[in-house]
Amino acid sequence: MQPDISIIIPTHNASRIIDTVLSSVSSNAGIDKEVIVVDDASTDNTTEIVQKHPCRLIALKEQSGPSHARNRGAREARSSILMFMDSDALIEPDTLGKILLKFKENPGAACISGVFEKNPDHSSLCAKYRDLQLHYWHRTTTGDASVFILTAGAIRKEVFFEVGGFSTSFGKFADIEDYEIGHRIAKKYRMITAPDIRFHHLEHASPLPVLVAKLFRRARMWVPLFLQRKQFEKNYATRNRALAVLCVGTAACMTCLSLYWHAGIYAAAVLTGLFFMLDLGFYLFLLKQGGPFFLIVAAGLHLLLSVVLFSGAVVGGLGFLLKKLSGRA
User: Fold this and answer.
1) pTM metric for this prediction
2) Is CB count within 10 Å lower at the N or C end of the chain?
3) Burial (Cβ within 10 Å: 0-12, 13-18, ≥19) of residue 289
4) Same domain for 53 and 157?
5) Distance between CA 213 and CA 305 in Å, rounded?
6) In a domain, 300, yes or no
7) Is 209 a member of any domain?
8) Which of 99, 135, 129 is closest to 117 using CA atoms?
9) Tell me: the pLDDT tens digits for 29-80?
10) 205: which DSSP letter?
11) Are strands 5-11 and 81-85 parallel, antiparallel or unpaired?
């Protein structure tokens, strides 16, 4: 018999958390589900832990990246609904039931995704900032989406294969495959982010240097997609957030320029003010969640990481233009 939903989880050296992840899936009782774990050549004991749970394990011999692993799991899935989960994401006991209900209520929707819930514990102020940032961004951009949220999102199987599955061109660090496939899906189908479908993502505990490298890489990879599509996202990289990054990045350039052009410091001050005004609701949210001291720390982190995003975007944009000029884009 065909299960109601197939949950596909790519893993690589996930022994620290995979037991908790699979337990969160098992807590969704009363749902006819199959769980497929595609292990991307782990070198720790991830596969041994997975085998203790009621799921199917596909162990790949060579590491090829999460997109390849997800595609492999999708080909093996038996349900008409495919749900993809990260190996560091936790779902709540009612998540699967709510996803299936949303598909019934929205027969024209191709994808149903949930929103990041706040995590109760944080290893650092940086982790708390990142966790609250993504929680706020999710909560304020629900409804129609252009990004397929892979942390815990589901798609109709026929649509997934119609658009060609996930692109494997991004390699082992497939940071923007959710944007790329979302753009292909959105050309013909509706995608929904539902506020009542909640999950927890534990990647936010990344140290600041790791987060800086990750955001730089993602911005560098996302800008060529934007230049091809010529549209901002309906969630995540919205017009206001992109404008805020542009403001603070230009302010940083103006600050450097002020060494030679003194009026540049005034332009930098105005642009920095605009940067904070464009996301005022976010700062009020941070103040409510952590108080004045946390707001100061988080605002500083937000400014720093926005400069990182701007730098990555510039590098990505220049790379795209050079490829286009050489005829390779």
Assistant:
1) 0.89
2) N
3) middle
4) yes
5) 10
6) yes
7) no
8) 135
9) 999 999 999 999 999 999 999 999 999 999 999 998 999 999 999 999 999 9
10) G
11) parallel
Number of domains in the chain: 2
Task: In whole angstroms, give the CA distance from residue 139 to residue 109.
Answer: 20
User: What are the C-alpha distances in Å from 309 to residues 98, 144, 224, 276, 299?
Assistant: 34, 25, 14, 16, 15
**Structural domain boundaries, residue 267:** 239-325
**DSSP assignment letter at 90:** E
Give the CATH number for residue 131: 3.90.550.10
**Residue 33 phi, psi (nearest 5):** -130, 155
User: What is the CA 53 to chain-centroid distance, rounded?
Assistant: 26
Residue 307 domain-assigned (yes or no): yes
CA 37 from centroid of its chain's CA atoms: 20
Distances in whole angstroms, Cα of residue 65 to Cα of each of 6, 54, 172, 232, 276: 20, 24, 4, 26, 37
Which residues partner with 79 through β-bridges? none
